[in-house]
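Protein modeling request. Please complete all fields; requests missing the sequence field cannot be processed.
Requester role: graduate student
Desired output: 3D structure, token encoding
Chains: 1
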Amino acid sequence: MEQRASEVVLDYEVRVEATPEVVFAHFIDPVLMTDWIAQHAELDSRPGGKVRLEVNGTDVVVGTVVEIVPNERLVFTWGWEGDRYAVPPGSSTVEVTFEKDGDCTVVHVRHSRLPAVARDIHAAGWAALLPRLREACVG
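Delivered output (139 residues):
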């Protein structure tokens, strides 16, 4: 993937003590999403489907599902309503893969097409969210 000098890519990996089916559900089931990523979530889990995450009562992520392979891969666009985070709705991309590893799942998250000015806030966000995902899947 070509990257412009002013854009960054964030890569994360987390091992979750749950099956790919359980972890994947936490990315596409709006009720389960509220356990780790948002206070309120809407996700139409088909290509072209809407993604809307009310993160904290103030900040709202908006995007579209690009690709979905159940229990294996999810790709969606990501951006924020308003101009607070310099990432307009749908302007960046989140790719998530789910790899079975024994009784666990290794989750790879790649957030690309982020403007450099938004790197730190998104890096901190994913660093905080992925441990919450791990807890939600085993709780």
